[in-house]
Structures are given as structure tokens and as C-alpha cells.
Design goal:
Length: about 280
């Protein structure tokens, strides 16, 4: 449920770690207010800073008041619905963000009976970067046995690497589904042949929901390294592959035509009798 227009209410409350006089001065500067208006704001009664404004504008007022060290509430015009406070909770004017432990605890308080809700949201670049990381780990798991002396070491290390790659992949899919405001349990589509290709393509290119959704605030903007792994390298590979197919299309067609003959030479004669489509 959501309302189209809201009002921002201030009741004289301040954030922990702030001095009331300092907050009054900052709010006085913020709203270009005189002493009488500031006195009304801190009278203990509910005072409407702004009325009949959209959600986005109401959030701007909320952030500005929090940066000044105050607390406010955003409610619908008919008072039937209110918005949850932003999760950037400023504990002191000029400092932003919560500690990692506080963020983890707030997630557990949401609904511990639904474990997937404990996982936040990631965007397309972050998702593609994690997929690249999982593929690199898998490649290491396949190549590493050549350099390990014993079978026991090989089995232990490769099993751990495969498990790590799977965990990273599952986390990436669940967090990306949350960014699309979908249940994390839908990652199981990845085990269905053919469907999994369309599913992964959807996760890689679909645009996430704007603003907050049922799984939290929007993901942070990706950094340069994440954009490199999650966008520029995949785009370069796709463009390079398309250019290669276009430039060497005749050679590729010849290779495809010769492929059945090459396969039939590598298949024993008795097997070819059972698989006639592989023999010429």
C-alpha cells in the first residue's frame, strides 16, 4: 500500500548525540525561520513542515532534517499510512550511516521466519561481477588438480572451491531477484535446462525496481572495478564475438559443415551403427 501525497511532521525530537540548541540553529538556517517558528517546532506538538507533497519530495525533507540532527515522520494526507524512516539514520549531524552490526540486526528484526529477506539487493553490474567471480573460481577448481600432489588434497580443495562458487552464485541470484522485487526462491529456475539460459539473461539485463521495495533500499552505485567486470568486459566480449562471426562467417560455415565428418571419424564403427546421424 502506498499513498500519492504525504505530509512531513516534526515533533521536536532530535537524533541521539546531538545538542538541542545546535539542532535549533541548523533548522533555523535550513528553513530560513525566525525564533517564534523554531519555538513552535520544539513545543512538543506535531507541526507539519510540508503538506500534500509526493513521496520523493517528502524524503528530501526527511534527509535534510536528519542531517540537521532532527527527527520527523512522513504520513499520508489522511493519516492512514506512514512511511518507514530512511535507513541511513544519522546518529549525529554531519555523520551518516549505521554500523554493520546495526544493519544486520535491523534485517533480522524484519522477519526472521523468511531467511531470504535477510539478503539485500544488488544491481546488474554487481550481479554480473559475482558471476564472473564464480566462473573464475570454477576454472581454478578444474585446473588446480594438475598442480596438487595427492588425490586427497585435490578432492578437498576442489570440493571447497566448487562449494564456494555455488554459494556465490546462489547469493547473487537471490539478491538480484530482490532488486527486481521477486522472491529469492525463484533462483531454482536455474536448474531447469534451457529455461536457465533465459533466466540468467533476465537477471543480467533486467532493470531493478526504482526506490525501495519489499527487500530494502536500492543498491549502491557500482564502482569502477565493478562496472569493468559487470558491464564493459561482457559488452566487449559480445561485440568482439559479433564482429568475429561477421568477419569470418564463411570459415565458420565451413567448420560447421565439416563438424559431423570430424565427429564420425572419432566414433568407433560399432557405435556409429547405433547412432547413424553421426556418420556420413
Amino acid at each position: 500500500m502506498d499513498a500519492k501525497h504525504y505530509k512531513v511532521l516534526f515533533e521536536g525530537k532530535i537524533l541521539p548525540g546531538n545538542d538541542e540548541d545546535s539542532v535549533k540553529e541548523r533548522l533555523k538556517t535550513l528553513f530560513h525561520a525566525d525564533d517564534s517558528l523554531i519555538s513552535r517546532l520544539f513545543s512538543g506538538k506535531s507541526y507539519a513542515i510540508r503538506k500534500n507533497i509526493p513521496k520523493k519530495e517528502a524524503r528530501k525533507y526527511e534527509k535534510a532534517i536528519m542531517q540537521a540532527g532532527g527527527q520527523c515522520r512522513i504520513v499520508a494526507m489522511d493519516s492512514s499510512w506512514k512511511l518507514e524512516p530512511i535507513e541511513k539514520g544519522l546518529t549525529k549531524a554531519g555523520t551518516s550511516g549505521k554500523s554493520p552490526l546495526t544493519r544486520i540486526n535491523s534485517r533480522f528484526r524484519k522477519d526472521p521466519s523468511k531467511p531470504f529477506r535477510l539478503i539485500g539487493r544488488i544491481g546488474r553490474c554487481q550481479f554480473n561481477s559475482l558471476c564472473w567471480l564464480a566462473m573464475v573460481i570454477e576454472a581454478v577448481a578444474f585446473l588446480l588438480p594438475m598442480y596438487l600432489p595427492t588425490i586427497q588434497q585435490t578432492s578437498t580443495v576442489t570440493t571447497g572451491l566448487h562449494a564456494l562458487a555455488i554459494l556465490i552464485s546462489v547469493y547473487a541470484m537471490i539478491a538480484r531477484l530482490h532488486d527486481l522485487n521477486r522472491s529469492g526462491s525463484k533462483w531454482l529456475f536455474v536448474v531447469i535446462p534451457i529455461v536457465n539460459l533465459m533466466f540468467m539473461s533476465w537477471l543480467s539485463f533486467a532493470k531493478g525496481t526504482k526506490g525501495s521495495n519489499a527487500y530494502g533500499e536500492p543498491p549502491a552505485k557500482p564502482g569502477r572495478f565493478v562496472r569493468l567486470l559487470g558491464f564493459y568486459i561482457p559488452a566487449g566480449i559480445v561485440l568482439g564475438a559479433a564482429a568475429g562471426i561477421y568477419l569470418y562467417q564463411n570459415e565458420l560455415l565451413n567448420l560447421i559443415q565439416q563438424l559431423p565428418a570430424g565427429l564420425s571419424k572419432q566414433i568407433p564403427g560399432d557405435v556409429g551403427g547405433y547412432l547413424p546421424f553421426l556418420s556420413l
